[in-house]
Structure prediction request, 240 residues.
Amino acid sequence: MKIGELAARTGASVRSIRHYEEEGLLRAERGPNRYRDFGEPAVERVQRIRVLLRNGFTIDEIRSVAVDLDDTNLGSVCADVVRLYVAKLAELDARIAEMRALQRRIRGRLGEIERQRTAT
Amino acid sequence: MKIGELAARTGASVRSIRHYEEEGLLRAERGPNRYRDFGEPAVERVQRIRVLLRNGFTIDEIRSVAVDLDDTNLGSVCADVVRLYVAKLAELDARIAEMRALQRRIRGRLGEIERQRTAT
DNA sequence: GTAAACCCTCACGCCGGTGGCAGAGTCAAG
DNA sequence: CTTGACTCTGCCACCGGCGTGAGGGTTTAC
Prediction:
């Protein structure tokens, strides 16, 4: 499929997809007209890349776990990848805890505002 | 306190703190020697700014809820602030759910790697 | 056969910093 | 009274993950 279709099906912008390819996270065939041609698995691959990006992985880190982006090729990861995963799990724990605390603060604040609005 | 101490106590860089002040998130007295002079509450204020930044608020948004950064001055927020808070709560919900799903995926992957390592 | 829609590359801009540098003032200790 | 650590303003440049636009080629639909 061409880049526009991949963009539409993943929610990523065309620009982002080109960026992922430039950065080596994604591979594309090229026809005689230099257009990128992506296979079906690229859809899930892009979605997974975006989930990782939203949650604290950098492009470089994603490249290092690239083998895990497809469901083929399971196995054959090095100790570095394992260490990265373990570190990211801890990071995610911390971020989740922080977000929860922030939610509590905001909810508390909204409650106060509501009480103030009602109590007059 | 002077900017260096505030930086040390909050973990923010001196540069960042100047940036927050320029952006109007933070106020500082100035002595006769143009040095910034922060009060004790600035410590918590900077920490709160950083929590918000890490969790999806932009500088502009933080400025708009600036009145809520201190524990004084509660009350007198406009409807825009309430809308922002409500939207951010939903965003945080989504982000937390996604992070949990990602954790599950990573844990699953780590489990597979472990099984593979053990089963040979 | 032409207009719209798509694709290409190149290259600059944004945000929330972070760093560095210059040139200068200030403060505390020896 | 000097030395070193700190502070000030102002500027320029970098990062990542894109957005945006220029200037061009290709494909598709009428």
In short: The mean pLDDT of chain A is 91.
